[in-house]
Write a structure and sequence with these properties.
Elements lengths: L13 E13 L5 E6 L4 E3 L2 E3 L6 H13 L5 E15 L4 E14 L10 E7 L1 H7 L3 H16 L13
Parallel strand pairs: 1-6
Antiparallel strand pairs: 1-4, 2-3, 2-7, 5-6
Length: 163
């Protein structure tokens, strides 16, 4: 596994970034989808940048499709926002990243990964909390586990996200 993010550099410019992603839940089994980032040997959630003019929900849906091939998801609710910072060597910038996550349900187990990912796993919620690599993702997955546990019915109360 590669070392974690590099610390901020006092002399580097600051670049804000906004991302959106989701904890994808298989409706029938209640399992969570994790994807494995091959180059970094890390288990993570589908997530990526928000394009100009795109809503957070639209970006989350697009990233799920791009990274997993799953094109039929129901975004139920926003489940968290996390912020973190790191130094990005390739362009010499300090990145201030904000990521917003949704709880997304799907009826399919069929996954078609983007080439940067080498495998995926459908895991019981508690196992997903233990397996996900990033501490920030772990917080989001634990929150999703608690939400799913308190309302196991996919048609239960949910503030549905709008595009």
């Amino acid at each position: 596994m590669k070392p974690g993010p590099l610390p901020f550099r006092a002399d580097a410019p600051i670049v804000p970034e906004l991302s959106a992603g989701a904890v994808v839940v298989h409706e029938a089994s209640g399992e969570f989808l994790l994807i494995h980032l091959a180059d970094e040997d890390r288990w993570c959630l589908p997530k990526g940048h928000v394009d100009p003019g795109e809503s957070l929900a639209q970006a989350a849906r697009r990233e799920i499709v791009e990274e997993t091939g799953i094109d039929s998801v129901d975004l139920r609710e926003e489940i968290g926002e996390i912020a973190y910072r790191f130094y990005r060597q390739r362009d010499g910038s300090n990145v201030l990243k904000t990521a917003v996550y949704f709880l997304a349900y799907t009826s399919t187990r069929s996954v078609r990964l983007e080439p940067i990912f080498d495998r995926h796993a459908w895991l019981a919620p508690e196992e997903a909390v233990k397996t996900v690599s990033y501490e920030t993702d772990r917080t989001v997955v634990a929150r999703a586990r608690d939400r799913v546990r308190s309302s196991r019915s996919p048609s239960g109360p949910s503030g549905r996200a709008h595009p």
